[in-house]
């Protein structure tokens, strides 16, 4: 049996489009995917575990990793850094496991710059009106924030060309089925399997 290297799948899209919901539903159906563990400088909280919830590092260590290009992406939020460690992702892929990263659009573009061999999936709302309704239904945003999020969403939708696939999140189950189809399709791509099969031919001919 030919052992394939794993693939990094990056799911991204505007805030409020339902990335977390789709990812959660996907993982309930597809246990072979490995969710990407982030690194953070925030303190560990009760009940959390190193290497399970996050990799916890000091600010100095994190900044040194940024300088050494050891992170596929990073951002600062409320005084703490968050990012995706390159070595964890590469080690998991080398083990033949697919890594799944759910992230905001700007983070996804950072990952693409640092790891272009990943597969980038843009999760799109059926319409901006539907996105507006979803954000309002959260009940956590003021009207001004809703308008800001919609403006940001328009800007992010214009970045769709940077992605390999677009999945419209009209219904969660439909979106999950499309993502699963993308995963299967990517594993059958000629350029991923050709070199391994050619090695088989070389062995059989020797």
Automatic annotation (TrEMBL):
It catalyses: GMP + ATP = GDP + ADP. It is found in: Cytoplasm. GO terms for molecular function: ATP binding; GMP kinase activity. Its EC number is 2.7.4.8. GO terms for cellular component: cytosol. Keywords: ATP-binding, Cytoplasm, Kinase, Nucleotide-binding, Transferase. ATP binds at residues 13-20. The keyword Cell membrane does not apply. It comes from the Bacteria. It is an enzyme of class 2 (transferase). Residues 6-184 form the Guanylate kinase-like domain. SUPFAM superfamilies: P-loop containing nucleoside triphosphate hydrolases. Pfam families: Guanylate_kin. Belongs to the guanylate kinase family. Essential for recycling GMP and indirectly, cGMP. This is Guanylate kinase.
